[in-house]
């Protein structure tokens, strides 16, 4: 099993990327929340991974944080949820946002994620509630590393507002860095979209 990769980004084209580790290129798929925080091609990166072995393929998925990988693995345990829907969920909603949906039993927020219908959202609420509580108890929190939190929340909010993941990433890249709050990032991204 491959648990993590540390190497140079050889190429990236959402949601796929190739990480060169000692001359071997590993093809991965990553959620947009991870993709948005990746350095440029040619830069070093460290990603946590999850490997899925099927009859016809061996697939590798990359994540920027342990919380994302843990949520992805828990999502795969839900009947009817596969890696593609797991990536869509992580691309459309932050780990904190997902936990908020679970606590508030918010079916509407989950159905805004592409590929998630009402029945799937309801199944997620039922099956993930206990797993999420166990994960929070085990880790003590569902913290996102400093710096990533505001960007990840802003990304999730833009996707929830109906922007495609690629559009949300593009809008947020145009927002100046620094110590902006999530609200500031969303406001500036929306102002940028309005000017286009």
Question: What's the quick description here?
Answer:
This protein is an alpha+beta fold.
List strands and helices in order, with pairings.
Layout: E1 4-13, E2 16-21, E3 24-29, H1 32-35, E4 44-53, E5 58-63, H2 66-76, H3 83-92, H4 95-104, H5 107-111, H6 118-139, H7 148-160, H8 165-173, H9 182-195
Helix pairs in contact: 2-3, 2-6, 4-6, 7-8, 7-9
Could you please describe the fold and organization of this structure?
This protein has 196 residues and is α+β, with helices and mostly antiparallel strands. It folds into 3 domains: 4-63, OB fold (Dihydrolipoamide Acetyltransferase, E2P), CATH 2.40.50.140; 66-139, Orthogonal Bundle (DNA polymerase, domain 1); 148-195, Helicase, Ruva Protein, domain 3, CATH 1.10.8. Helix content is 50%, strand content 19%. It has 9 helices and 5 strands, in the order E-E-E-H-E-E-H-H-H-H-H-H-H-H. Strands 3-2-1-4-5 form a 5-stranded antiparallel sheet, with helices on one face. Helix 2 packs across helix 3 (83-92). The termini are far apart. The model is unreliable at 135-148 (pLDDT under 50).
């Amino acid at each position: 099993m491959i648990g993590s990769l540390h190497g140079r980004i050889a190429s990236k084209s959402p949601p796929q990327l190739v990480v060169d580790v000692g001359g071997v290129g590993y093809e991965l798929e990553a959620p947009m929340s991870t993709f948005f925080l990746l350095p440029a091609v040619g830069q070093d990166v460290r990603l946590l991974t999850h490997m899925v072995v099927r009859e016809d393929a061996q697939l590798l998925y990359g994540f920027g944080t342990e919380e994302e990988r843990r949520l992805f693995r828990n999502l795969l345990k839900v009947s009817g949820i596969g890696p593609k829907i797991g990536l869509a969920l992580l691309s459309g909603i932050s780990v904190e946002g997902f936990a908020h949906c679970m606590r508030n039993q918010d079916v509407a927020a989950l159905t805004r994620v592409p590929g998630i219908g009402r029945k799937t959202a309801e199944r997620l609420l039922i099956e993930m509630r206990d797993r999420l509580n166990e994960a929070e108890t085990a880790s003590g929190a569902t913290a996102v590393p400093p710096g990533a939190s505001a960007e990840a929340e802003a990304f999730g909010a833009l996707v929830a507002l109906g922007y495609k993941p690629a559009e949300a990433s593009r809008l947020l890249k145009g927002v100046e860095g620094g110590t902006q709050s999530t609200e500031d990032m969303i406001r500036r991204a929306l102002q940028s979209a309005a000017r286009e």
